[in-house]
């Protein structure tokens, strides 16, 4: 289901958030993530395109120009699991609350679906996510990962 919303904060009236993957500027997303996001430095365009194709994507767009200014990706089955990742706000528009608005749109999308939790990992943006209701895992020792070299 593609949906478009406007931000709830009046400061963000100049932006709209959409899950329409056809609107994404894939080259821009790849440029941002592969060159400026610590978790995706060097990610290939092919890998990024496959990630987009296999995920629910949220784009934030300048309402006047239609230009993509922020992005978030969610790996999900829309029923039991969601992993928020690849959240990126273009440097010139940072500090306006757009990252928070984007994560709120993700939260609001999943809240009525019965997904038990949305998880994420971050090194440095805890404050952004805490504003939206994220908190550390209650029992982190229950979680495991299978890393590949």
Give a topology summary.
Elements lengths: L3 E3 L8 E4 L7 H11 L8 H9 L2 E7 L5 E9 L5 E8 L8 H13 L7 E2 L6 H7 L17
Parallel strand pairs: 5-6
Antiparallel strand pairs: 1-2, 2-3, 3-4, 4-5
Helix pairs in contact: 1-2, 3-4
Would you give an account of this structure?
With 149 residues, this protein is of the alpha+beta class. It has one domain (4-132): Aminopeptidase. The protein is 27% helix and 22% strand. It has helices spanning 26-36, 45-53, 98-110, 126-132; strands spanning 4-6, 15-18, 56-62, 68-76, 82-89, 118-119. The chain has a 6-stranded mixed β-sheet with strand order 1-2-3-4-5-6. Strand 5 (82-89), helix 3 (98-110) and strand 6 form a beta-alpha-beta unit. Helix 3 crosses helix 4. The longest helix is centred in the last third of the chain and has 13 residues, at 98-110. The protein starts with a strand and ends in a 17-residue tail after the last helix. The model has no long low-confidence stretch (mean pLDDT 92).
Using brief descriptors, characterize the structure shown.
149 residues; alpha+beta; Aminopeptidase; six-stranded mixed β-sheet; 4 helices; 6 strands; 27% helix; globular
The structure class reads alpha+beta
Count of alpha/pi helices: 4
Strand content: 15-25%
Molecular shape: globular
| Spatial arrangement of strands, main beta sheet | 1-2-3-4-5-6
Structure summary:
With 149 residues, the chain is α+β, with helices and mostly antiparallel strands. Helices cover 27% and strands 22% of the residues. It has one domain: Gcn5-related N-acetyltransferase (GNAT) (Aminopeptidase, 3-Layer(aba) Sandwich).
